[in-house]
Amino acid sequence: MTEFVKKIYNRLIAIFGKGWFFVATLVLFALNTMWLILSSNLLPYDEYYHIGIIRFYAQQWSPFISSQPAEMSLYGDVTRLPSYAYHYLMSFPYRFFDIFTYSETLIIIGLRIINLAIVIAGILLFRQLFLKAKTPKYLINIATLVFVSTPIVPLLAAQNNYDNLMFMITPIVLILAYKSVEEKLSVTNLLWLATAGMLATLTKHNFIVIFGAAIMYVLFILIKRHRGAIFGLLSASVKNSKKAGLVAGVVFVIVFGLFFERYGINAIKYKQVKVDCAKVQPVSVCENFSPWRRNQKALNNIPEQPLYGDPISFTSHWSTKLMRGYYAVFANIVPDNVNVPDPYGHYVFKKLLPLPITIGYILLSAGLISFVLKFKKLWHKNTLTHLTVVSSGVLLVSLWVFNYAFYLKYGQAYAIQGRYIVPMLLPLILLFATAIYELTKKSSLKWTRYILVSLVLLYCLSGGVVGWIIKSNDDWYWNNAVVFDFNRGAKNILKAVVPH
Question: Which among 14, 116, 314, 461 is placed 20 to 30 Å from 30, CA to CA?
Answer without folding.
Answer: 14
